[in-house]
Amino acid sequence: MELDRYDRRILEVLQEEGRISNQDLAERIGLSASPCLRRVKALEENGLIAGYRALLDAKKLGFTLTVLIQISMDRHTPERFANFEARVGELDEVMECLLITGQDADYLLKAVVRDMDAYQELLLNKITRIEGVSGVHSSFVMRRVVDKTALPVGRA
């Protein structure tokens, strides 16, 4: 799908204000309501808009620790990786799982937990028990310096 300036502006605004009404969105980007709605529907149908979500405050919900966990696997086989990915996908604490290169690790996980006891439970009773996990290195986030969810579609 070829994006013009209206499509890009729609995507920019919706990333910042997902609950904006179609009328307000149309006014913001300089279109009337009907063409604006058609464009939003087309962006959704083409998969550029993957969904709408509420962003929650982890600390206010009691998740005081964010941890980045590097995982090394014992063997690099498709079966080993598929099993790990399926198992880690079942862990509620894991917010992201990235298969990475250029490090000693194979995966980088981002997890949120209530406290150090909850992290110990996650690490010792869940992550290290996944078949194939041979090494774990953890780093705790002290402060979020940049915390974006919006993609730079205006500059794409």
Automatic annotation (TrEMBL):
InterPro entries: ArsR-like_HTH (IPR011991), AsnC-type_HTH_dom (IPR000485), Dimeric_a/b-barrel (IPR011008), Tscrpt_reg_AsnC-like (IPR019888), Tscrpt_reg_AsnC/Lrp_C (IPR019887), Tscrpt_reg_HTH_AsnC-type_CS (IPR019885), WH-like_DNA-bd_sf (IPR036388), WH_DNA-bd_sf (IPR036390). It comes from the Bacteria. GO terms for cellular component: cytosol. GO terms for biological process: regulation of DNA-templated transcription; response to amino acid. GO terms for molecular function: sequence-specific DNA binding. Signal peptide: none annotated. Residues 3-64 form the HTH asnC-type domain. Pfam families: AsnC_trans_reg (PF01037), HTH_24 (PF13412). Keywords: DNA-binding, Transcription, Transcription regulation. The keyword tRNA-binding does not apply. This is AsnC family transcriptional regulator. It comes from Sulfurimicrobium lacus. The lineage of its organism: Bacteria, Pseudomonadati, Pseudomonadota, Betaproteobacteria, Nitrosomonadales.
